[in-house]
Amino acid sequence: MVKKIFIGTAWPYVNGxxxxxxxxxxxxxxxIFSRYCRLKGYQVLMVSGTDCHGTPITLEADKMKISxxxxxxxxxxxVLKLIETYDISYDLFTSTTNPVHKKITQQFFLKLLKNGFIxxxxxxQYFSNKENRFLPDRYxxxxxxxxxxxxxxxxxxEVCGRSLNPGDLISPKSKLTGSxxxxxxxxxxxxxxxxxxxxxxxxxxxxxxxxEWVYKESLGFLKEGLQERAxxxxxxxxxxxxxxxxxxxxxxxxxxxxxxxxxxxxxxGYFSASVKWAKIKNKNWQDFWLDKACxxxxxxxxxxxxxxxxxxxxxxxxxxxxxxxxYFPAVNHFLMLEGKKFSxxxxxxxxxxxxxxxxxxxxxxxxxxxxxxxTKDSDFKFQDFKQSVNNKLxxxxxxxxxxxxxxxxxxxxxxxxxxxxxxxxxxxIEQSSFAFQNNLEKxxxxxxxxxxxxxxxxxxxxxxxxxxxxxxxxxxxxxxEVIYSCLEAISFLRFMLWPFLPHSISRLNKMxxxxxxxSEGKDLFIFEKTGTFKIKQPIKPLYSKIP
RNA sequence: CGCGGGGUGGUGGAGUAGGACCACGCGGGUCUCAUAAGCCCGAGACGCAGGUGCAAAUCCUGCCCCCGCAACCA
Length: 547
Hints:
Elements: E1 4-9, H1 20-39, E2 43-50, H2 55-63, H3 68-85, E3 92-95, H4 99-114, E4 118-128, E5 133-134, E6 140-144, E7 152-153, E8 169-174, E9 181-191, H5 193-205, H6 212-223, E10 229-230, E11 232-234, E12 258-260, H7 262-266, H8 268-281, H9 286-289, E13 294-301, H10 305-318, E14 328-332, E15 335-337, H11 352-359, H12 361-370, E16 378-380, H13 382-411, H14 423-441, H15 445-466, H16 468-474, H17 476-497, H18 502-512
The protein binds one RNA strand through β4, α6, β10, α7 and α10.
């Protein structure tokens, strides 16, 4: 039976350009994993899209004096361009503004309502008369009523450390315009996580194959007990509440002025994008969401952890449809830039598109893959980048491939009489392949890349020990055997490198007149001799040094 | 005492009690097929202070530093 894999990646917010933190946090690791799965012959579905709703979008749009939808139209293509440039292999990359998503979000809500997990509740929120809108706590500042510190944000006082609720600020003002802010009564729908707590706890508790810190963090969060959580906001930008379909006893006032809260809606995108993909491609989304043999992998930064291990599973459980829950949340820490957090306002920023043009996509992919923040925050340093690419990718990997191919072409006229694979090489291929797959199955991508580098080192050492350049005059048969063994080793190397470096490995395929025959059910990591090596195109180095 | 993660040679990582390991960088040597590439050898580290143990990077206590979350930022 073909293994089924669903891959969901975090939905990038469309209020700015994507920086290398997004590449390292989910785009590149998810892509490496999905390419590996495809080579293994698994049935893969990888989806995501842009997250287009929420207050930050409306605020950014206001700042630019355009409508939220105009802002989305401006940024969505830029995100798409980046994904195409880096060749992130989504089966569908959509956005939360697509109609299928709207409809499915409303259905999710209605189902939760029907199943008794939604309740209505009155709260007080900060409201700006001048701006004529409710403001999130963090956009309001005033004096902390506990310690009397001035200019504290509405969500927390940084001086005394207390969490603040609406009303805990004295003379609150809008952080955006400085205008006065009042407390206003408003009614919202809440998702009652208390009722789902037991099932969520069982789900998390039984997931002890997760990365240890992810497991502990999720359990730690549950330890404090879940509470009901608002799923609607007083906003005019977002997905509308399906008023017509709500039983009258559940209706609340001003529903036409409310929208679904983005946290509730964005994660449903994983499901709605799958449904949309199935419609477009005429496939079954049920293969991935109802077949218990399908495993769900999610890739995201650590700021998104709780949404994927607690809240989203809760939403799925509440559907009572027996949908597949996350199998493995590949949560990454953060990528820093020269020791600092990426920050547009502080100028700590690199344009991902620009560096791909300047240094090539595969160079950037290689470096980022080598420093993925899988266990703790990691650091993008330009000096490291250059060293890493020049020494590992160019000198070790690139040079190995080049020295073997050019030797084969120049000294053996690209022809081998006897296809005899050295046992020591065969053993290494099998041993590395095993270690590599073992790591990738556990989404340990940095370790898997190290397996590849270790394999390359071995082949370089093998060449030095056997010195085919000397054998050329003393023992031609052995010389052919050594070079043939290296060619087979390189041929297999293509499979291990392609997930990391799709562009250059495609070039290598062309040089060798080979291709990947990817098909569901066919495991390309089972070693098979390539047999004969034809060289049709001029041999050129795959990589060049960064000056 | 809100929850959790982290601090190991210059850099990035591995290592949950008994020889501190890997890769890059650095120093030296060597080959010459190759992109001044390859290969070999070497120097160099457990955040701080206590404690338990025959033995601590690892367990305990206190402190310092970095990061995420803390339910209205997603």
